Amino acid sequence: MANKKFDGLIEAVRYAPDGKIELVRAYERRGATFSDHILISRVDLVARLMKGEKFVTGLRKEFLGSTFESAKIVRMNGDVISTGSESSRDLLEEVPIL
């Protein structure tokens, strides 16, 4: 997924006690480059995904600015945000907890 275009990359996640995503730490595309990390609430993440923005999970490569190692595509299936296709709850696989 090295050359795929995406609007944002999620680096870390915080889950609420009910198991839903509460907050993510992400980088967002700003033209040809990316922002510093930002915190996105669940409400804002859902709104962005519903608008058609593409988010992936992964990590920023150290000392390489806007270079990322992306892993999995984040999908919205009903009320569930996940990287798996058949998940029944919010789950971003292999993403560190914030």
Task: List the defining traits of the structure above.
single chain, 98 residues, mainly beta, two-stranded antiparallel ribbon, 8 strands, 9% helix, 43% strand
- Give the percentage of residues in beta strands: 35-45%
Helix-strand sequence: EEEEHEEEE
The number of domains is: 1
Intertermini distance: 24 Å
Largest sheet: 6 strands, mixed
Overall SS class: mainly beta
What overall form do the CA principal axes indicate?
globular
- Number of helical segments with 4 or more residues: 1
Question: What percent of the residues sit in helical stretches (DSSP H or I)?
Answer: under 10%
What's the average pLDDT? 89
Radius of gyration: 13 Å
Residue windows where pLDDT falls under 50 for at least 5 positions = none
Strand segment count = 8
Model description:
The chain is mainly β and about 100 residues long. It has one domain (about 10-80). Helices cover about 10% and strands about 45% of the residues. The protein contains one helix and eight strands. The strands form two sheets. Strands 1, 2, 3, 4, 5 and 6 form a six-stranded mixed sheet that branches. The protein has a two-stranded antiparallel ribbon with strand order 7-8. The mean pLDDT is about 90.
Question: TL;DR of this structure?
Answer:
The protein is mainly beta. It has one helix at 42-50; strands at 8-15, 21-30, 33-34, 38-41, 55-60, 68-73, 75-77, 80-82. A hairpin with a 2-residue loop joins strand 2 and strand 3.
